[in-house]
Amino acid sequence: MISTTKVLRFLFFNLFVTYFLSGLCAQDFTPLVRQFSKQDYGASNQNWSVAQDSEGLLYFGNNHGLLQFDGLNWEVYRIPENKLVRSIFIDDNDKIYIGSFEEFGYFEKNKYGKLEYTSLSAKLVNYDMKNDEIWTINMVDNKIIFQTFTSYFIYHNDIVEGIRQPYTFLFFSVYEDNLYTHTYQNGLSTIDFNSNSVIPFNCGDKKCNEVISVLPFVNSKGLIVTKSSGLYILEDKEINRFTTEEDNLLDKVEVNRAVTTPNGDIILGTIQNGIIALSKDGKRLWSLNRSNILQNNTVLGLHIDNVGNIWVALDKGIAYVQINSGIRYVQSISPSVGAIYDLLYIKPHLYIGTNQGLYSSIFNERKSEIENVSSIAKVRGQVWNLTNIDDQYFCGNNHGVFEITKNELKQVSPVQGGFCIKKGVIHGQEVVIQGTYTQLCVYLKKNNRWQFSHVIGGFINPVRYLEIDYTGKIWASHLHQGLYEIELTNDLKQIASINVYQSLDGVNKYNINVFKINNRVVFTDHHKFYTYEDIKKKIIPFEELNRKLGHFASSYRVIQFNSEMYWFILDNDIALFKITPNESKMIDMLSYSMFKNQIVDDYQNVVPISSTQCLLTLENGIAVYSLNQNDTDSIKTALGIKQIFVRNNYTKAMSYLEVEDIKNTIQIPYSENNITFSLFYPDYPRLNSVYFKYKLEGIDATWSEPTASGLKNYNFLPSGKYVFKSCVVLNNGEVLSEAEWKFEIMPPFYLSWLAFVFYSLLAILIIYLIVAYFRRKLQRKHLLMKQEDEERQRKEIDKREQMIVTLEKEKLEVELKQKSKELAESTMTIIKKNEMLSMMREEVLRQKELLGSQYPNKYADKLLKMIDQHLSSEDDWAKFQANFDRIHENFFRNLRHNYPELTSNDLRFCAYLRLNLTSKDIANLMNITLKGVEVARYRIRKKINLPSNKSLTEFMIELK
Fold first, then answer.
1. How is the chain split into domains, by residue range?
2. Looking at beta carbons, which pairs linking 201-208 to residues 24 or more positions away fall under 8 Å?
3. Which residues have a Cβ under 8 Å from the Cβ of 927 and sit 6 or more positions away?
4. What band does 21 get if pLDDT is binned at 50, 70 and 90?
5. What number does CATH give the domain 640-749?
6. Which end of the chain is least crowded, N or C, by CB within 10 Å?
7. pLDDT tens by residue, 528-572
8. Of residues 286, 302, 146, the one with CA closest to residue 225
9. pLDDT tens digit string along 327-345?
10. Are 243-324 and 640-749 in the same CATH fold?
């Protein structure tokens, strides 16, 4: 049975070997690479070729068509049948030739800034395309040559000619006005287009198999690039092998594309191994592939742009390799070291201080790589700083302060958390002061070596930054808030005086940091810089520095690069300024976004390693910056107006305006006074780092605020002349380029000369109409006055007539009342008469009954007959009825019409009710009993359907 000790030894050995070998792996400092995926450019994954025009715009051959990039926006231009674009070539006139499957032609920009396609394959005569696919496009003797695997097409003087050959071509390339190709039948060959003959090239015994390109190289030599048998030099028609450090790799990989840079570097794009970069003397520079940064290992196209950087068309996506940026970096250190806070370069060793501890490595400057990354076990946990003071190397660690020597690593201070350490002169004595988690530590020289001496009494605060000014004051920044101004006693052990500043401007209580610029102590509160005024004994704004720094006046950290240059650090950007007593000038600016958000927030650091190089700390990565590595300042990118379009107010239709001639004033109809400008600024090294400002003279009094958008829209502009001005600026306000465009919004129709003629005629017409109107109005007034007089007279007549009518009506009413009174009196008279006659009749009957035969019958009957004749005379009733009907508005007629069932007696009864006679009176008038009256009442109520709660007498009085 294997012992536990042996098992542990075996596991430890394997872990050690694995860790050690991983640490020995060399890691390239690669150029910055910006990736573009199909989500960015809105087309297919696969890109085949890339080219750039004279304005700086980039074009890519994509599976969806021709892809254009102007530095701000991507746009796809389709070709017939939506075919892919395999190859691109741009001539000196910016005519963009493209090749596809059984299709080739060119795009040309029209006066509106849009690309228009012209097919050249459609002009072929006596040639039938059959599976012809254009792989390369070249120009020789002003002839454009489109190459397929078995044929080529010549475009010259607007004539297109197709030539099919009995050879299989690999690729065409032009070198010294000769077109080279590789045929599988004859190897490396040239083509004579006068005779259209393929001429084999004498390669001697050199095995330059499958040549993919012949490129111009240094010293007027040619570079022959093969697919898988290395590189060769072509000189005076002789071929010799070009030996490189990557020959073993080049014999194994398949090279697909190749270019050379202006300084002679060789860039090789492979099918499965990404990009390999070699120097002009064959040294390995760097490589890019999926293991470090590329999206894909298959390189289908390469192009060196106008500032010497590389654009890569990949099988998946597009890559922009900034070899002229001055930046190289290791994206991911292996083994992982964590967040890097500081670095120390003791040639050739590079010490790495991280949140996980201290690491050591070898920094190979020639190869631009780091090797042998390994952990120093003695220093664990957070490392805050690594500092060289008089060739003594200090490491401020979470657990104390260590000194790094060649032989050992020893602890020199027991105080934990060494944040910062600075050298200065206090009371005439050289000292080193260190800020820690809690105390200020003092180091003094003994035996020509700095040694920890003591801590300053009476001060317990975490200090992040400190500086010692020329008077010996210590300026210390609290880790979170406040600034301390400290003066020490002569023995350096106690604080003689201390001032605390909670805010620099009395308002903002942000972290206050302290640094030195040209030996002058400066302070920053993340808003602007301040300095100490010795005469006034107070902190004041450093106005001159703030003005020259612009946007970077809000930097939170300053690091000296060399004697005159300083790095100013923001959260997302970093800038290098040259600061002298006479000037302050930005030298360079970098964006931390280029490092894929690998920044160590609030602790970004820059470590100078020479007068021209420094290192930037990242999250498990390191970047090396080289000052003036390549001079590209002579190439100025111009801000351009790509397109201008207007929108009609009525139809909402869009139309484009000419952008070719920006000197003349363009006239725009008033109906299209909504105008949009689309700008482009193809400064690719500054992608996403520049801003645009706009001003429309005639509308704007000042420039707009900086914006990242290259689109500017103006709506409903009034008529008049305008000058649209635009500029592109950096964060600090520096103007990089300007452009302007003049235009005029024409007056609307209602303000044109025709409109004014119309207005004049209309005014004359209006004046005439006004005169006619007032004349007619005067006539109407006279007529109205006449009519008013007539109306007044008529009203007076009507009034008199009305008075007459009223009087007559009153007279009639009086008469009516009189008649009613008379009728009532007549009725009462009749009633009384009837009563009298009834009494007489009764008396006659009584007397006859008493007298008997004494009262003869003939006399009694005659008297009774006379009484009966006058008791209920129909003549009296007829006369009564006629008078009653006149007085009471056809009472009987309406009663008969409404209630036809009523009898004559009923009508008479109703008349008596309307006169409001009592039942007794009615009984006497009708010669009936009181009971007969009640029966009559009941009968009439039933005939007229009168409700029981309604008085029959009231009903008859109210009846109309």
1. 243-324, 640-749, 753-958
2. 202/237, 203/239, 204/238, 204/239, 206/232, 206/239, 206/240, 206/241, 208/232, 208/239
3. 834, 838, 871, 872
4. very low
5. 2.60.40.10
6. N
7. 999 999 888 899 999 999 988 888 999 999 999 988 899 999 988
8. 302
9. 888 888 988 999 999 999 9
10. no
